[in-house]
């Protein structure tokens, strides 16, 4: 058994439709299609391979433990890039999205499912073109999008796990936020 999972935020359907329109326009105009193989999403943790049922149970248990957070507003604004190959919609950093990602990362760290060298600094973004974007095409896309305005706001009240099945990322499990005041406290000899 080997499964590939992605921990992410999926914006509401109307925003995903707007993003997919942009991604489809870029794909048609510039012949880049890789981003269409994935849902419009904000990655919270690099995709991970889980190779045993026991490891999978632990994976989902620690994600459940990381879901104690208050809902928050998230803004997507304008376009940016990781030169010279990735174009994205900027996910405006705020304390809440950074805290959510940090909680997930901290919860998953003891499982050692991603080597420490592969854990990258978290820069929240929503990719609209990457991987099959070559430098000349990257420059054309950025020339077109760098000054365009885009702004959407949505409430984040949980996160998702997608599973890679039949060469596609498919929704697998939702983790709605739970009241942080209800989070079990670690036992201590000194309380």
Concise account of the structure shown:
The chain is 29% helix and 32% strand. The protein is built from 4 helices and 8 strands, in the order E-H-E-H-E-E-H-E-H-E-E-E. The chain is globular and about 50 Å long.
List the helices and strands and how they pair.
Layout: E1 3-9, H1 13-30, E2 42-50, H2 53-65, E3 72-82, E4 86-91, H3 95-108, E5 125-129, H4 135-145, E6 151-156, E7 158-165, E8 168-176
Antiparallel strand pairs: 1-2, 1-7, 3-4, 3-6, 4-5, 7-8
What keywords describe this structure?
alpha+beta, Cyclic Phosphodiesterase, Chain: A, 4 helices, 4-stranded antiparallel sheet, 191 residues
Q: What is the beta-strand fraction?
A: 25-35%
- Written as H for each helix and E for each strand, in order along the chain, the element string is EHEHEEHEHEEE
As laid out across the biggest beta sheet, the strand order is: 2-1-7-8
Rg (CA only): 18 Å
Largest sheet entry: 4 strands, antiparallel
The CATH topology name reads: Cyclic Phosphodiesterase, Chain: A
CATH architecture: Alpha-Beta Complex
Number of helices: 4
- The backbone outline, from C-alpha atoms, is globular
CATH class: Alpha Beta
CATH superfamily: Cyclic phosphodiesterase
Whole-Å distance between the termini? 43 Å
Beta-strand segment tally: 8
User: Mean of the pLDDT scores?
Assistant: 93
Number of domains: 1
């Amino acid at each position: 058994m080997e499964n590939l999972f992605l921990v992410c935020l999926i914006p509401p359907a109307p925003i995903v439709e707007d993003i997919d329109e942009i991604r489809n326009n870029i794909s048609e105009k510039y012949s880049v299609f890789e981003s269409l193989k994935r849902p419009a999403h904000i990655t919270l943790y690099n995709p991970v391979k889980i190779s045993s049922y026991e490891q999978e149970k632990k994976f989902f248990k620690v994600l459940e433990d990381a879901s104690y957070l208050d809902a928050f507003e998230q803004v997507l604004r304008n376009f940016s890039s990781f030169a010279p190959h990735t174009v994205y919609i900027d996910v405006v950093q705020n304390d809440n999205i950074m805290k959510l990602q940090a909680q997930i990362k901290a919860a998953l760290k003891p499982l050692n499912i991603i080597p420490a060298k592969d854990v990258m600094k978290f820069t929240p973004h929503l990719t609209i073109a990457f991987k099959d974007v070559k430098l000349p095409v990257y420059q054309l896309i950025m020339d077109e999008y760098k000054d365009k305005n885009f702004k959407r706001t949505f409430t984040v009240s949980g996160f998702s796990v997608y599973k890679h099945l039949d060469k596609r990322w498919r929704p697998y499990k939702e983790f709605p936020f739970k009241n942080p005041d209800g989070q079990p406290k670690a036992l201590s000899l000194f309380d």
